[in-house]
Amino acid sequence: MAKAFFRLQKFLRRTQFLLFFLTAAYLMAGSLLLLQRTRLVIQQGLRGTSNPALPVPEGMAGISIADPRMLQNPRPSPRLLVGTDAMQEPALDQRHGPLWLVSRNSELRQLRRRWFHRFISDQEPMQTAGFKAMKHTAEHQGTYVGCFSDDSRERTLKGAVFYDLRKMTVSHCQEACAERAYTYAGLAYGAECYCGNTLPATASKPEECNSECKGEKGSVCGGVNRLSVYRVEELRAGARRRRNVIYRGCFRAPENLTDTFPASLIQPNLTVEMCSEFCSKKEFPLAVIRGRECYCGFPTGRFSLHDGADGQLCGGMRNASSAAQGKYCLVYQTPVQDTRCTDRKFLTTKSKVFVALSSFPGAGNTWARHLIEHATGYYTGSYYFDGALYNKGFKGEKDHWRSRRTICVKTHESGKTEIEMFDSAILLIRNPFKSLMAEFNRKYAGHLGYATDRNWKSKEWPDFVNSYASWWASHVLDWLRYGKHLLIVHYEDLKQNLIPKLREMVEFLNMTVTEDRLLCVENNRDGNFKRSGAKQKDFEPFTQEMKDLINRYILTVDEALRGRNFTGLPREYVPR
């Protein structure tokens, strides 16, 4: 009897364990099924929106409109617009009024954060297409000089700096340095490229350069604090002399040129090519010509390049021999990069003030980050992770956005919760017509390309405008309502008056910078973010219906800005 009881007890223990295991498995399976069903419901909801033809980005959730009382009176303001009777049609009021904005924003709330991550996987091949072509057309591999020590505080190869943390190769680095007329190309950490005309002083053991190139297996791209240095082939020297030399204009010469410019050359038959080549070898971005005198240097307070003179005062022709001998000089931009403002790092201590750099997509946020990083010397962070930007040197992309190790954090968010987590914000606003076109270009051609005619003429463009125009308005209105401490910056003002506006932004970030550093930023204002490719001339993608829709939002935002005692929208925003 005892033996039978023991067997029964043992069986029940096993059954208890088995039941526990089956129950846990059942709960896990149910959870997975619930998650899958939720995902399907969201996808079906997206397909059922009012714009089924539009692949609406997943980055537009959480957009809540400001207090509806701010939008109750969307009538045209005499301060901004006259003669907009077409906007008062009842159908337009009903479809695109404040209540429609609120309901539209609730639809968009589900679509925000994953959009930027999805875009990365779609666009990274586009971003690297140009590099692949460069790699395959490279004519040489250069001459390997050796492995050298790399001291970031006293770097020898400092003429230009490039990053590609996914696709860096030896050829890529050499081509980048060759285009800027440098003699040496050095690679470090498997992904960083440095250019210069002087070899590093300290050689290292060959085995210390042991980092594999990120984009080329089996190739060595330096190491930790070590540079693999190559000499760019002299065969390219003749082609480089005339490359990337830009005429900056005629300027009044400073009183003492030798004090203003650190290098000079006197040549009886001086030409632009001679002076540019001389200054490039000396690693200066400016070549200044006065008669037979050539001077090299940087833009400074003494010579800021802000007040140009009539070209006839320099002889009318852009050549050295006809330049005025005394008061005026010709100025050229050499291929050399101005490196006085290229050093960047993370904050050494956590920032006490959590600052956002907020904008609607397509409003120039990446460009503003480029300016801020080079002006302050500190990286900017991001609420998202964009691998293409990280590979271009925005190292703050991989830093957690709440780490407070960056000077400010990029965001396109506009919900109450997302706004109130920041202590202050720089709110960057751009003309919605230009913003929508820029974002459409980015969506279909990446950060630096243009959408094709086929994209513009497809049904996706009107659906895109219909969906995104309300986001432009609600983004500004939400930040005006929930933002704690705001600095409003208009993209157009920043572009036209770069140094004053950038100084204002830097002061808002509680930083101080020198005038020379700001001039360096101005000299590198475009960075690597100027769109390339065929741009359509006199292209008007907006129909009258689209213009009427966007004009309503312009008036709403303008009145909201003035209601908060900010300056209204620039005159450039005047409805078309």
Distance between the termini: 98 Å
| Physical arrangement of strands within the biggest beta sheet | 9-11-10-13-8-12
Assign the structural class, choosing from mainly alpha, mainly beta, alpha/beta, alpha+beta, or little secondary structure: alpha+beta
Largest sheet: 6 strands, antiparallel
Radius of gyration: 29 Å
Mean pLDDT across the residues is 76
At CATH level 3, the topology of one domain is Rossmann fold
- Tally the helices: what do you get? 18
Given as residue ranges, the uncertain stretches (5+ residues, pLDDT < 50) are 37-100, 106-140, 235-242, 316-324
CATH superfamily of one domain: P-loop containing nucleotide triphosphate hydrolases
Overall, the morphology is globular
The protein's oligomeric status is single chain
Please estimate the helix content: 25-40%
Which CATH-level-2 architecture of one domain?
3-Layer(aba) Sandwich
Q: What is the CATH first-level class name of one domain?
A: Alpha Beta
Strand content: 5-15%
Instruction: Work out the number of β strands.
Output: 18
GO molecular function: sulfotransferase activity
Organism: Rynchops niger
Family: Belongs to the WSCD family.
Keywords: Repeat
